[in-house]
Amino acid sequence: MSSPSISVQIIGSGAVRALPERGGPCYLVTIDDRKLLFDCGRCAVHNLHRFGTPVESIDEIYITHLHFDHISDLPLMLLLSWNNGRDARIPVFGPKGMDRFLENGVRTAYEADINSRISHGNRVRDKLDWAATEITKEGLVYGNATYRIDALATAHAGLANWNYRITVGGKIIVITSDSEPDQRLVEFCRGADLMLVECSGTKAFYESVAFGGWHITPEDVGQIARDAGVKQVVLKHFVMESFSDDPDVAEKMAETVRGIHAEGEIFAATDGLKFEL
Ligand SMILES: [Zn+2]
Ligand SMILES: [Zn+2]
């Protein structure tokens, strides 16, 4: 059996506040012709098209947690892919409460629009549907003959919160959620070829804001990636940039991680950055 082709692209490298050069959290994993989307934040739909992936071509969606920066484009994704001719129920995996978010945020919120479009006769109500799976336990979320997705729960802002690991063709890719530092991430990331990891800000920044305790520091990222032997580390979700005049915040945090995990290749994410594995 030949190995699958695997690529990982940063669709949105940013976080909560709008920055013209960074979309909100969204990452695309392509395995052969199968497209898996992780989180669907601000500008996800726009950036997917910008980088050559029409929304109706997405096959599976995985959501880390229900902070709006990670899901604000999800209703648009479901509506637009339906409008554009998606003809399969798209599986959406995520935390408890996600199905309610989708029912309220898509079917109820857009009821008038949906009824109007159906009255044209060229769209069928059923095709708007999605297949939501709310994850209730750690471990296997989804698997087939080519790849498997595992989830790990970590603490973040009192929310149900899932980190994801994709195992495919002898490669391991980890996409972390926003998270407090957690030593269990070391085992979860063990031997990973690629890790996309939250790096919202520095310790000093966290001490200056109310939500600082919800997040991981560059030092923690470096230690976890080093102890897990991660080969390539991509920092993402740069909250601090929106609070700082320093244009090099992300690169400086990458430098801190390099100082701890010298064996690894460390990148500060940009929108569109793509890795072939
Ligand atoms: Zn976030
Ligand atoms: Zn969050």
Features:
277 residues, alpha/beta, Metallo-beta-lactamase, Chain A, 7-stranded mixed sheet, 9 helices, 14 strands, 26% strand, globular, binds zinc ion
Number of domains: 1
- CATH fold label: Metallo-beta-lactamase, Chain A
Radius of gyration: 18 Å
Q: Could you tell me the strand content as a percent range?
A: 25-35%
Continuous helix count: 9
First and last CA, distance:
17 Å
In total, how many beta strands? 14
Q: In sequence order, what are the helices and strands, one letter per element?
A: EEEHEHHEHHEEEEEHEHHEHEE
CATH class identity:
Alpha Beta
> Roughly how much helix do the residues carry, as a percent range?
25-40%
The CATH architecture comes to: 4-Layer Sandwich
Would you write up a description of this structure?
The structure is a single chain. The mean pLDDT is 95. It is built from 9 helices and 14 strands. With 277 residues, the chain is of the alpha/beta class. The chain has helices spanning 44-50, 68-71, 74-83, 98-108, 111-119, 184-188, 203-207, 218-228, 249-260; strands spanning 6-12, 26-31, 34-38, 60-62, 90-94, 130-134, 139-143, 147-153, 162-168, 171-175, 194-198, 232-236, 265-268, 274-276. The strands form 2 sheets. Strands 6-5-4-3-2-1-14 form a 7-stranded mixed beta sheet. The protein has a 7-stranded mixed beta sheet with strand order 7-8-9-10-11-12-13, covered by helices on one side. Strand 9 (162-168) and strand 10 (171-175) form a beta hairpin. The structure holds zinc ion (ZN) (2 copies). One zinc ion is lined by residues 15, 25, 67, 69-70, 178, 237.
